[in-house]
Specification:
Layout (H helix, E strand, L loop, with lengths): L7 E7 L12 E7 L2 H4 L7 E7 L4 E6 L6 E9 L5 E7 L4 E4 L8 E7 L16 E2 L3 E3 L4 H6 L2 E5 L2 E7 L6 E7 L2 E7 L3 E7 L9 E5 L4 E6 L1
Parallel strand pairs: 3-17
Antiparallel strand pairs: 1-2, 3-4, 4-7, 5-6, 5-8, 8-9, 8-10, 11-12, 12-15, 13-14, 13-16, 16-17
Length: about 220
């Protein structure tokens, strides 16, 4: 039997009755009814890092350790076919992959919580779970910086140039046959040379990251 109670603490007298009408000794139990007030205090699990590969159109979202009362986190996005996709990550897991991500569309996430902890047998001690509000994840300024990146061949190397109108601190990592080169800059317009590349045509993987563990990767 499920009854609807106004939100707040309650004290119940519980007893059993047999077919002859005999009742057991009453037992006192305590409980709480939760609702909008509890739900308004909830926040989604914190994102620790976001890594997007624009070549294969896939992103990996890594979350920080889950709070005790948190249960599952949902990530909602739109794929390249225009369909809405919801990925679910359990508390024991830390990351989820967003396949075929349309990076021009909204990415949202939320987390469900139980109002009370699990018992000693890891069983729920409350009936309902409550979701936080959806929170939007926004691509940082590094997306537009990467899209402006131009590679110009040099003798034994390559010149990297880009536009960064907001002077956002970024770090380039160029991976190529023969090694890697790291470049850091916060200038609005900048250009750097990277040498040590093997001769001939090759693909250079460019990764752009910021100080908040956001990374975007693209093959150029």
């Amino acid at each position: 039997m499920l009854l609807i109670f106004p939100k707040g603490p309650y004290q119940f007298q519980v007893y059993s009755r047999d077919a002859d009408g005999n009742t057991s000794i009453k037992t006192t139990v305590f409980g709480n009814a939760y609702g909008d007030v509890f739900q308004s205090t909830l926040s989604p699990r914190i994102i620790n890092s976001f890594s997007y590969n624009s070549t294969i159109k896939s992103a990996t979202v890594t979350f920080k350790t889950q709070e005790e009362l948190a249960r599952v986190t949902e990530v909602k996005y739109t794929n390249l076919s225009g369909n809405e996709v919801v990925k679910t990550i359990l508390g024991v897991d830390s990351s989820v992959i967003l396949d075929q991500l349309d990076s021009s569309k909204l990415i949202q996430y939320r987390t469900s919580y139980a109002p009370t902890p699990l018992d000693a047998k890891k069983q729920e001690t409350s009936i309902d779970l409550f979701f936080s509000n959806w929170k939007e994840y926004k691509f940082t300024a590094i997306k537009s910086v990467l899209e402006s990146t131009i590679l110009t061949p040099l003798n034994g190397g390559v010149n990297v140039s880009w536009n960064n109108p907001t002077n956002y601190p970024v770090k380039y990592t160029l991976a190529y046959t023969g090694g890697t080169t790291t470049i850091s800059s916060s200038l609005s317009t900048d250009s750097k040379d990277a040498f040590g590349l093997a001769s001939g045509s090759q693909t250079i993987t460019v990764s752009l990251s910021d100080n908040y563990n956001n990374t975007i990767t693209k093959d150029l």
